[in-house]
Amino acid sequence: MLPLIVIAGRPNVGKSTLFNRLARKRIAIVADTPGVTRDRKEVECDIYERRVMLVDTAGLEEAPPDSLYGRMRASSSHAITRADLVLFVVDAKAGLTPTDNHFAAWLRKQGRPVLLVVNKAEGRGGTAASMEAYSLGLGEPTPISAEHGEGLSDLISEIFDRLPKLAETDEPEPVLEIELDENGEEIGAGPVRPLQLAIIGRPNAGKSTLLNRLLGEERMLTGPEPGLTRDSVTVRIRDEFGEINLVDTAGLRRRARIEEDLEKMSTHSSIEALKMAEIVVLLIDALEGISDQDLALARLVEREGRGLVIALNKWDAVEDRAASLRLTNMRLEASLAQMRGIKLISFSAITGSSIQRLLPAVRATHKIWNKRIGTSALNRWFERALERHQAPLVEGRRLKLRYITQAKARPPTFVVFGTRADQTPEDYKRYLVNSLREEFDMPGVPIRLEFRGHENPFDKD
Questions:
Q1: Where are the alpha helices (DSSP H) in 111-217?
Q2: Cα 363–367–370 angle (5° rounding)?
Q3: Fold designation for 193-367
Q4: Rounded distance, CA 199 to CA 402, Å?
Q5: What class does CATH assign to 4-167?
Q6: pLDDT tens digits for 220-229?
Q7: pLDDT digits (tens, 9 = 90+) for 33-46
Q8: CATH of domain 375-454
Q9: What residues does each domain of the chain span?
Q10: Is the peptide bond before 411 cis (omega within 30 degrees of 0)?
């Protein structure tokens, strides 16, 4: 297990800015609005040569347990009770508040190692704030400015000194995966990489509930309030085939409805998570059915070259399930012909009914997305396809398509060579893609088919 470092403090003291600094990349959304962070964010990063798990939490506030802020505090408290080190952040500009004192007293009772961090301590005012912070009883404070990067080297040194001693079991031997060529011959081995999976969908489709169900704990905030998730959150889960990096994203609405800057940042974070994924689960509220916005998201997945699984959530509440499935399949067939055969899974995330069908569908789609086909098999199919439907005439001359090869996988990408092949009409390209998908059993993933040709001055046909 990696050492767990949890950043905690009241809202708007700069926890997410510090999180991004220590992670050395922009992961958490940062804004002047208090309470931007609602769900815990985790990332593996290096503190000098030590690998650690860094956690950003929602602001600590006193609130009724069943309220939104009460649920946010419960999530943060759960992370703190498991931490190997807590970075308790206070705001030098605002000075100590009763909330700071309250949670400092609470932290002292938890028995966890605490490093007191005085943020926004740039300039002369930071010294006075640091002296005041001694009164919290959490030891010597470390003044920094997370926004400007001041004092970060001292903070990292303090963190490193407080990490648990390295045990041999902390650095397990990597599991290796054998890589084979198209003929099944071993060509090398490398570490098994976690599958990158993102969950997207409209607000209130049940994405966070699904993540919690797959993880087996209340990791994400859920509730009746729409748009609870503001930032993309990555967690690590495991199935029988290995590890999966699972990303829960903020709900995506039509661009015309996105007004606030914070929602624009949330939308950007969701789109970036989609681009980094290998497979995407598009979660749909089965009670509302598939919408134009859902189809637009599916087309975005196809344009980005990701594998797609469509999941109908809240299936337990659907009365006419046969009609719902029929309507969904009809819309997919009519509007997503370029990804024909997408796996469609129905379940209830809140009860867990049929949820066990999702990850096998994701794994199956991932296998197809990684598929490689031997050149000889491809060209045998290619010859048959050309015999069934001859290459068309362009400007009175027939195209001469000669052979095909697979350029890469992830997604499956093929290149057709021939005289003036680059002039192949779109309808003939679609014919070849559909035939290729059917012949080699590649449903539900984008297929890229490129054409490269040249003008032959001696070809007068």
A1: 125-133, 152-162, 207-215
A2: 135
A3: Rossmann fold (3.40.50)
A4: 41
A5: alpha beta
A6: 544 455 444 5
A7: 444 444 677 888 88
A8: 3.30.300.20
A9: 4-167, 193-367, 375-454
A10: yes
